[in-house]
Amino acid sequence: xxxxxxxxxxxxxxxxxxxxxxxxxxxxxxxxxxxxxxxxxxxxxxxxxxxxxxxxxxxxxxxxxxxxxxxxxxxxxxxxxxxxxxxxxxxxxxxxxxxxxxxxxxxxxxxxxxxxxxxxxxxxxxxxxxxxxxxxxxxxxxxxxxxxxxxxxxxxxxxxxxxxxxxxxxxxxxxxxxx
Length: 179
Description:
single chain; four-stranded antiparallel sheet
């Protein structure tokens, strides 16, 4: 399923990408541009704007809450999403990640990471390298919780970890020597 999120849903966009969904997010587009893009690319538009969901010929979902802890379960439930390929898309630019050989990233990741990690992925679009860093385990627990409980995420009062580029599952942007 291809999704397009409006400017009010940036945190949700990162999570949907981390869950493996093709999630376009352009916070500066106006309503007409969002509708055109959704129609042209066959995307379902997720929005907090009730009026926007009433546009003809538009597949859309009104996201009811301002809180990520409520948004994510609603979207998963309402769109009948299965979480089959988490950590397969770049949370920054939405491009599918490619696994790369450890030896190819030696000069592009911190020495400690190179010594202690075995698996690396590369975003061919924005050139970021990802590995399973400290934040990755917390996100993996959250994904397991989402899978196991369907739509229940955290105990009341607990926040869903915010994907932070730089430590969500590790990233380092170091220029390649061949560029």
